[in-house]
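User: Second chain of the day. Same drill as before.
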Amino acid sequence: MSTTQDLVRGRRLRRMRLVATGLLASMAGLYLAAGFWLNAAPWLAYVRAFAEAATVGACADWFAVTALFRRPLGLPIPHTAIVPRNKDRIGGALGGFIAENFLTAEVLEARLRQLQIGRWGAGWLRQRKNAAALAERFVKLAPELLAFSTPQARRRFVGSIASEAIAAVPAAPFAAGVLRAIWSGERRAAALDAALDLAQGVLARNEDLLRAEVAGRTYRWLPRWVDDRIADAILTGLSRTLAEMRQPGNALRERLSSWADDFILRLETDPALAAKAEEIKRQITSSPLLAERLGDVGAGFEAWLNPATDAEAAALAERVAGWLSGLGGWLYEQDEAIEIFNDWARRALQGSVAPRRRQIGRMIAGVVASWEVGSVVEKLELQVGADLQYIRINGTIVGGLVGLAIFTLSGLLHPH
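Assistant: Same format as last time:
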């Protein structure tokens, strides 16, 4: 099926062919005319020499350009129709070239650092129209994509991708980067307050459990009211301590803050802690529980992606667009988060693309091999055919000038 770009390229190709062929015909006509009037005007010998050489150059370059894609005039001339006869070899060479020159770890690292994937992606995503278009396509395609595979196959695929992605990212530097992004600047106080909120919530929800623990650990002969007084004292003390930690300058608050700074620094510099983090990551990725939990989450997500009515689909697309736009806007303003995402994306792509570059090269070669010869010729000719016509035009002009120079030099060396 021809695209709009193919139609534009096709018109340009036909126009340039007409110009090159018209120039060839003009030179041939000029050669004949100059020869006919040569006796009347001797200076026309120079015009005739130019036109003769230009015609030869034009014919030679027409043959060379045509021979790339087909047999000139349909004649079985050796070493013509180069692209159709070498389609599979060209595909193999193309795949190998891309694999060895574009998909190596070094090239990917340099290119991905230049691209700044996080900043570009966040800037694109925070525009509402982009988020809405992406959400609409996602909601429409999701049920169709899910129908191509079984739930078991999807579960295995998600588990494999998640495990590879987690394995490709060093645990300690990644965790340190996330914590530093949360813990930096004004977010430090908010993070501490959130931790205190969490602690107070846990304490409130587990008051009965704490009282039972106190009663179970005191002497049996103590009255119940004594156990209650002890539990009340503990709960009151903990609540008062948590409340006091909300005040700036509190000693425990400062100690907790210093401990967090030290822990982040150790994640970045302590080899023993980094090794421990990698071991924890390995245990997580190798545990069947991870795949099971991912499968449960995936099943719920798939049900959410299958709206029953058009109205539900529209509402889902609007909700997803809002999330995506908000995510893009937040991420664009977070330099630390952007750098973490860039680093994660670089490592994930390097860990998944670079080791498979030869498979990708073979895939490209296979795709080219599967194309029909006529399709390959058409695709390549539409891409470069118009530019190749300039070879014919330049060959005509350069050939004429060279012929004129030779004719002039010959006249000077061998005057009549």
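Residues 104-356 form one domain.

User: Great, on to the next one.
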